[in-house]
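Researcher: Here's a chain I'd like modeled. Treat it as a single chain, no partners, no ligands.
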Amino acid sequence: FRSLRRLENGRLVAQCNISPVASAAPGRSTPRGEFVRDVRRTLGDRLNQVQKIETIPANSTGGTLRVTASGVDHGLAMTWVYYLCTAPTGQQVSLVFAVEQRLLKAWGSRDRDIVSTLVFPKRPPRTAGK
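Model: Modeled as a single isolated chain. Structure tokens:
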């Protein structure tokens, strides 16, 4: 688990948490419905609604699922943008960007910009007996 924070003028604009996800079979990924259920479960009582579920066309890293949700956390109106990124090898990682709703316009599409640069490490080839 890793966390990144975007600060502007000393103020927190957004936070991104990056978590590994169990690998899928090569060419496959965690099913869309399962990922959306995980998002709902993770947000729990903070969730007001899942606003959008979209599949971002595959690129060299594989496929990406993007789920946008809104709600309230510690009294702040929030938007969470969850990504499930899957490599052709089945490697997966999840990213969630948390942005206060009042800062969404300033945030723009930075989450997409960051996710578009994702590169999965090459896995060493399997050898006999391993």
